[in-house]
Give the backbone structure.
Amino acid sequence: MTTVSRRNLLQLMGATALSAGVLGGSALQVRAEAGELVIGGSLPLTGVFAFAGIAIERGIQDYIKIVNDAGGIAGRQVRLAYEDTGYKPDTSVAVFNKLTSQNDLNLYYGDSTAFAKTIAPELQRGGKILMGGASFASELNDPEAYPNLFMAGPDYSEMISILMEYIAAEKPGAKVVLVNSDSEFGRDPIESSRKKAADLGLEIAAEIITPPTAVDVSTEVLKLRRARPDYVIFHGYILAPLPEFMSQAKQMGLDTKFMGTFWSMDSSIWADVGETADGFMGVMPYRYYYDDEPAPMLDTIRQMRPEYQATGYTQGMITAMVLLESARRVIEAGQEMTAPALKAAMNTITDFDTGGLIGVPISIPGNSIPVGRVYQYSAAEQKMLPVSDWIKVGG
Amino acid sequence: MSDDLLFFTEVTLAGLGSGALLALTALSFVLIYKATRVINLAVGETLMLGGYLFLAFAAGMGLPVWAALPLAIAGGGVLGAIVERGLIRPMLGKSPISVFMVTVGLGSVLVGLVEMLWGTDPRTLPGFIANTPVFIGEAYVSRKIVVAFIAAALVIGVFLALFRFWRGGVALRATASDQAAAYSCGINVPGVFSIAWIIGCATAAGTGVLLGAIGGISPSMGIFGLSALVVVIVGGLDSILGALIGGLGLGLIQAWTGSYLGGEYQSVVTFGLLIVTLVIRPYGLFGTHEIERL
């Protein structure tokens, strides 16, 4: 006969009580969260991309609030589960692993191209998650290679295409100089830009690559003076060294027009540049917070947040909108929430109204939303003002 | 002057200007290393803090530039004093790697602090250098670069003179040569350590203001310190003259490389130069032979 000591008995009872508590607790947790839709997020709330990450998080949270206040997605409440990554791909992966082990995730926001490329095979293996994010890398706009990803706007090549369409319409045969940072981000659209320029009959007068640590750009501006372009398209920067480029070019008497892509286009970063910023142009896939054209969603945002919201905010909101619209379509079709089903549902989005955040109804035939508009900064008003209609590119 | 020669002259002048900024940043490394044998990897972040302090005084508090600039420099000095007294002095006698890692951590803390206080958006400093260009003969030079060059030349000239003629400078040189002998001569070695950190960080803060005036400021601008680290390794970690010549040399090489080969070759050439120097003269072009590499 086996004898059980008093100590063993206490240990056994303790273990039983503990496991009952843990299992009971888990069961309760699962029941409490069973109806929830959770968006996971590897968000850059600190580090070099924090200026965008903080706005993105606000945009996602606000859209979730709007959706939840309206009854959720097919009756299911939505929650954002996220952690800061510092804009480091290894931390983003660690956050992904942690969040996916703690939550039943089907929707995700990733913070960088590097993270998207790193996690893509894992997303394909798992077959559960549709992911949007901060990257507009052209390489990711390939539904064959990256079936689980999408971006809430045009990719970088499409952004340059939009700018070049505008240039070709304004000044046929114009001379263009491409200025790109020496990084994966900066080099992304160079090849496609050359091709697009050739297609549109624009002349690429020079290509300038600046090192990532460049502060003084005097030598690059000298090259610019030699080329005497009508337009300069910057890509791969946020703010520096654009103002110095523009200031020195003006000092040299160049009447070149300067343009940028999405991450250089937030009006708040240009506000304290002053007169030098006047006339800076660029592509923006969304309306600005202060746009006065009819846009019900902008009205809602302005009611929720009376102060200016950056373009990262709108990017986060549109990403959440696409993720949740895809989920809604899957749920309403009675399908299982898998990545292929979510992606297929996303690709059925045609002529979708974003509440005016994007000025035209959108369709997502692949991994991007290939539409945008050219805006120009007015130093007097401290605002980006539209100078073109909405331009659709690609397929 | 032919077009090509004019272009070469302009590129060379621009290279000397940006080289002066590198030299000034390198000076901060050298001052601290010379006295304390600590490689302060937080120089880049101190420089960034200097830019933000100027922003706070000039834009936030509305002070005139003549008041905001010295206050920003003094702020850098205060940071140097606090770091030396609070973090570095307790580490005296510890492994150089530990002290080195403290400065790495300090850099991250400064970035975090700036992000908390001023946010993460890139900012532009209130303009205090005119935008009108300067022409040397026919050659164009950006006025900001001219100002940076003159400031760097003055500061480095003053430091060279101080080390030669000022008692404190001589004490610093004596401490750098032999700490025990300096003690026995009655030199206040801990005081020299403090002075070196205060002046080194104040120099970095001042450079941050100049750099910010040219390229704007952001929490990530400390990366500029990496290029200056190349300067001090090439020039010699304990040589002010090495910082000056290394800075101007690297500025020129980067400008010529960027103009004639393309910006994508700048990092290759810069770090290639670093490797070649380490192989040929591990103590740098003007450094002292016994420097211990980490």
